[in-house]
Amino acid sequence: MGEKNVSQGTLSRRGFLKATGAAAGALGLAGAAGMTTAQDWLAPAQAHAEGEEKVAYLCHQFHCLGNCCLKCTVRDGRLALIEPNDAVRKEDQRICLRGINEIQHVYAADRIQTPLKRVGERGEGKFEAISWDEAIETIANAIKESQEKYGDNSFFFRKSTEASSAHGFDFLSKLLHAETGGNWGLDRGQANGWNPGAGVGSWSPGNNSLAEWPLASTVIFLGDNILESGIVWSRGLFDAKEAGAKIITVDTRFSPTASKSDQWISVKPGTDAALIIGMIRAIMDEGWCDEEFIKAHTGYPYLIDEATGEIYGEMRDVTNEKTGEVTQKKAPYVWDAVSSSARLYDEEGIDPAIEGSWKLDGRTLTTEFSVLKKAYEPYTLDWASQITSVPSETIKGLADDYANRGPAFICFGLGGPDKYANADVLGHALVLVTALTGNIGKKGCGTGWYGAGGAFHSTTALRAWELPDEFKAAKSECEMYNMPYKDNNIHVALTFGDAFTLEAADANSMLDWVKSLDFYAICDIYHSSAVDYADIVLPACTKFECDEEITDLRNCKGYLALGQKCIDPLFESKTDLEVERLIAAQWGYDQYLPKSHEEYARHRLSEAKGNIEGFTIEAFKANQGVLRFLDSDEPMRSSCQFTTETGRLEPYYEKQIKFGQAFPVYETPNEAFEENPLHEQYPLVFVQGKSRFRIHAYYSASSWFQEYFGPVVNISPGDAQTRGIETGDEVRISNDRGTFVCTALVNNAIQPGTLFMAETTYNHYYPEGFLQNVTNSYRQERCYEMTHGPQIPYNDTLVEIEKA
Ligand SMILES: Nc1nc2c(c(=O)[nH]1)N[C@H]1C(S)=C(S)[C@@H](COP(=O)(O)OP(=O)(O)OC[C@H]3O[C@@H](n4cnc5c(=O)[nH]c(N)nc54)[C@H](O)[C@@H]3O)O[C@H]1N2
Ligand SMILES: Nc1nc2c(c(=O)[nH]1)N[C@H]1C(S)=C(S)[C@@H](COP(=O)(O)OP(=O)(O)OC[C@H]3O[C@@H](n4cnc5c(=O)[nH]c(N)nc54)[C@H](O)[C@@H]3O)O[C@H]1N2
Ligand SMILES: [Mo]
């Protein structure tokens, strides 16, 4: 912030727009206009000593899962100070570097200023400024033309998570019957494998789980780097540590979370399932199982027909309590040791055998547990050690800590091991190990992802905005990540945020497909990578800007928060709601949408009951925009009732016999393993993860962060030395999918044979290409039959690196 560039104190928004008009006309991007950027625009405090000041409260970004409640001081119409909202309890007051940095980021040079029309080739990034009217009409005409010619679902509409989850609406996909791109393909790899055994949704256990960490004896972070990816709940880690819990982090690199743990277990990329299978073997071999739990709460004693591998049971009518619908379900038998006979698993007064083999009605019956023991004979500790490169004794010690020290958590993340093609096998193995030890359903233990909603209270009582019945999104025929590879009917696309390059891997394939579309438009705040490929670009405003006093209404970890406007929309930007209204108006559909954020917020609160009963806009205004949920002090809940067919943990997946995965069978990653012939040419695994300096690509535009945390690849000293690479060198990373250039950082926290890079910065911050050019877009076939479909295996990527 150079003093010589300080601008006059009281430039009004209108005057400001005039002053920057020339630059806006040229590109519509802020860069060229000196007055528009934070460096030039932020004046030292004394320059504004007599300025006008107001305070506004809002909830910050959603997608770091932080949702921090902020207090913003606005001076002379500019954001001048950002602090935690002091109306929330002291222990809930928080802000991170990114929040403080918004003062610079909101006014960053990389903002889109005006609507733009492409004038060069797709990908070239050449634009001219146009009016909002022209931009909206062009978009509507392209959609209408395509829908008339090819049908409703020829229009693809997608909002990035930050654009949708933070604002709480997506009306256009329903109004225009759009294809929305089906399964997300993100963050549900382990959940795919966990769901059949423990119940859909239970991978993210709710209800104060984070507050339970201090009750645990052992907390294992399995590829979950919460000190960066969950900054605001990292407090749970330190509380647990102080209370005496042993903290163990399993990670390919010495991550920040590993550095604060009692033990770091360095595992080969994509092999965590083998680590858990090794633990399972140790627990069975050493007799560390919780037999009482196994009998009462798991399917391990269920009988299996040895000849078919099927569960031996009796079909039962089950009535759905809500719908009254009757379906048939298999009720398994167990072998009752009291009567020496097969009995239904839920009969009173029986004592199920955990192991054994019996003949009955011409069948040979055995238990799930016995089948597992036999199936896992080849999976010795030495085998697990060889696959994972973790010493056998360490794996055994981990199993000992988990099974015998007292209540234990396994906290998996949504990154790390989730982003390999074999993540479902890992999720399944986690059901097995949890079921053997009974580390679930009691206080101080559990398995799953403990971030976001699971870590704090939220509400589900906000009323939805109803559209007339005829407005429904098209039934999805193609996942977005499949669009370059699978036949589909998409001709026209509109995205809010850069879904194409942030969410999908293998950007060259994705962007070739985008280029082949008849028309593509994007509404974004910053100059994201996909902008260069759009025919029309619309400038969105940040959360700090609004054209009315109220912005959004949001779950903010224990509180509901009503966002207030800090400043007017900068440049010619508009709120997402206004943009959706403008587009809907082209069909006359704007009549169905809320006219303002205030109307929408009032509607959502209009049936406020349960933990938000009595919450009103006026009450929010009187309390600095935040109200604490009424049930926030409710005691922790834990239960051994699972939402599976039998209500117990069910480790054996009959439906996956056809995949050879009735019990988890170890499988290498799709690409990132040493025996892969591709490994000779591309010997390094390209591991990615979240960074505390960004939310995905967000904050790329902040020059403070750019200076220190731009696109940097971390490489181990050995791998760097053999390639003559030193810190600060420009390096080229390549594989058959593509190539990019960034800066190298030689770092002994990195495992030899791997690289680590924070995902993802917009393409124009790299000297050439960008990270997503090399990532793997493989789709695991069997996952089409799982709850969440194939997940994008970004980390399952082999590359080579050289000095550029
Ligand atoms: N600051 C910040 N926070 C965020 C986000 C953000 O963008 N920025 N995004 C949010 C979102 S959407 C998500 S999904 C979560 C994800 O949060 P996390 O689950 O913590 O995800 P990552 O940071 O991607 O990866 C975690 C760790 O996995 C390690 N890892 C990589 N491969 C393996 C492996 O094979 N085995 C093991 N054991 N470890 C491995 C990496 O080295 C990394 O340290 O973060 C959320 N929080
Ligand atoms: N290579 C690689 N890629 C990855 C990952 C990885 O580990 N490696 N991780 C993946 C994961 S876990 C996730 S969840 C995804 C996240 O990918 P996304 O869900 O797409 O990320 P978000 O940060 O939610 O959305 C960012 C986009 O929306 C824009 N935006 C932000 N706020 C608004 C708004 O209010 N209005 C509008 N119109 N636009 C807005 C931003 O400028 C940006 O273009 O990334 C995935 N991509
Ligand atoms: Mo994610």
Which key terms come to mind for this protein?
804 residues, alpha/beta, Dimethylsulfoxide Reductase, domain 2, Barwin-like endoglucanases, six-stranded mixed β-sheet, 25 helices, 29 strands, 26% helix, 19% strand, binds ligand MGD, binds molybdenum atom
Describe it.
Helices cover 26% and strands 19% of the residues. The protein is built from 25 helices and 29 strands. Strands 5-4-20-19-18-6 form a six-stranded mixed sheet. The chain has a six-stranded mixed barrel with strand order 24-28-25-27-26-29. Helix 7 (189-198) packs parallel to helix 16. The longest helix has 19 residues, at 132-150. Residues 63-65, 187, 222-225, 228-230, 250-253, 255, 267, 269-270, 272, 413-417, 687, 689-692, 694-696, 756, 795 line the site of one ligand MGD.
Short characterization:
This protein is α/β, with parallel strands linked by helices and 804 residues long.
Task: List the SSEs and their pairings.
Blueprint: H1 13-26, H2 38-41, E1 53-59, E2 69-75, E3 78-84, H3 97-105, E4 116-118, E5 127-129, H4 132-150, E6 155-159, H5 161-165, H6 172-175, H7 189-198, E7 218-222, H8 226-229, H9 235-242, E8 246-251, H10 256-259, E9 263-266, H11 272-285, H12 291-297, E10 303-305, E11 313-319, E12 326-336, E13 341-344, E14 357-360, E15 363-367, H13 368-375, H14 381-388, H15 392-404, E16 408-412, H16 423-437, E17 446-448, H17 452-455, E18 492-496, H18 499-503, H19 507-516, E19 519-524, E20 536-539, E21 550-555, E22 559-564, H20 576-585, H21 597-604, H22 617-622, E23 626-628, H23 678-681, E24 684-689, H24 703-709, E25 712-715, H25 717-722, E26 730-735, E27 738-746, E28 754-758, E29 798-803
Parallel strand pairs: 6-18, 7-8, 7-16, 8-9, 16-17, 18-19, 19-20, 24-28, 25-27
Antiparallel strand pairs: 1-2, 2-3, 4-5, 4-20, 10-15, 11-12, 12-13, 14-15, 21-22, 22-23, 24-29, 25-28, 26-27, 26-29
